[in-house]
Amino acid sequence: MVLSTRISIQWPPSEPKEEANVLAMTTANNNYVDIRIFKSQYPYHLKANENKKQNETLNDKTKELPFRDVFELCLAGTEVPLSETKIKFVNTINSQALQESIDSGQEVEADEDVGTFSEFGLDRKEIGEMKSPEDGVRKLYVEIWRSLDPWRHTPQNEVRESVEGNTDKDCLAFELVENTMKNKCKGKFVKIENWAQGIIQLESTIVVTRKWFDGEKWVNLIEYGECELFPNLETDVHDLVVGNVVKTTNNELSWICIEKS
Predict the structure, then answer these.
(1) pLDDT tens, 94-104?
(2) Domain for residue 51, yes or no?
(3) Could you tell me if residue 131 is left (phi over 0), alpha (psi between -120 and 50 degrees) or otherwise beta?
(4) Where in the cell does this protein reside (predicted)?
(5) Same-domain check for residues 24 and 78
(6) Integer Cα distance of 73 and 95 in angstroms
(7) Whether residue 201 sits in one domain with residue 121
(8) How many domains, in total, are found in the chain?
(9) Kind and range of the H or E element at 159?
(10) Which of these, 256, 203, 257, lies nearest to 226 by C-alpha position?
(11) What is 58-89 written as a DSSP string?
(12) Backbone angles phi, psi at 102, to 5 degrees
């Protein structure tokens, strides 16, 4: 179970760089949500909410920035350990594949990615191959990852996870129930202690959320799309057991709890 941020990405022979605020959350049972939002857009709040606060009557849907202008990449799926150093990432949601499908008008399957990990000081180095978000060409990448403390890390202050770590973390994972009211809908939502994030793919659109608990309430750090479609952390997660189903406030979607610790 880990909360990680990416320090840099390199597409050799180019130099390492980092233009995104990246948070990857992986549960004990290897369910993950990986959101990579451009630093210039973070935090990102739904234009609908901003307009409502200002009592403006605008067409909120037309005011949302295009997805590719806000996010580098969003992924959700399951990790499959292949060895002590190799992990296969099976993506059930891949925003890049969805965008390619929209652009081409043809179904594009999400790529699987195998990463090879090694120590890099106190951080981790990952080497693998995947499509570059910049040009869509599959190529070698090198990423540096840092584990974060899910209690003490905040949006303002980066706090590493201690070397010893702590495996006793509160964790929740949800998946969208099939055959809900919206067709071709899939999604995953995970919470690890004070952090939570999720992705929903609704046919040709994506909904993204990231939240942080400030000690009193959950603070929205990313609101892209209809974020009311995610489970409500204030009301929906108490006394849950694996297998329980919760509905969104408008009863449009049903989420099943697939993991709790």
Answers:
(1) 999 888 887 87
(2) no
(3) beta
(4) Cytoplasm; Nucleus
(5) yes
(6) 6
(7) no
(8) 2
(9) none
(10) 203
(11) --HHHHSPPHHHHEEEEEEEEEEE-SSSEEEE
(12) -65, -45
Contact 143, 6 (CB under 8 A): yes
Residues 76 and 181 in one domain: no
- Give yes or no for a cis peptide into 43 (omega within 30° of 0): yes
CA-to-CA distance for 226 and 54, rounded, in angstroms? 19
From first CA to last CA, the distance across the chain in angstroms is 10
Give per-residue pLDDT as tens, 148-195. Answer: 999 999 999 999 998 765 667 899 999 998 655 555 789 999 999 999
Look up the domain containing 187 and give its range: 171-260
Integer CA distances (angstroms), 39 to 18, 21, 58, 222, 240, in order: 9, 5, 27, 12, 35
At 173 the three-state DSSP class reads strand
The 254-260 sheet, strands edge to edge: 218-224, 205-213, 195-202, 185-192, 171-176, 254-260, 245-247
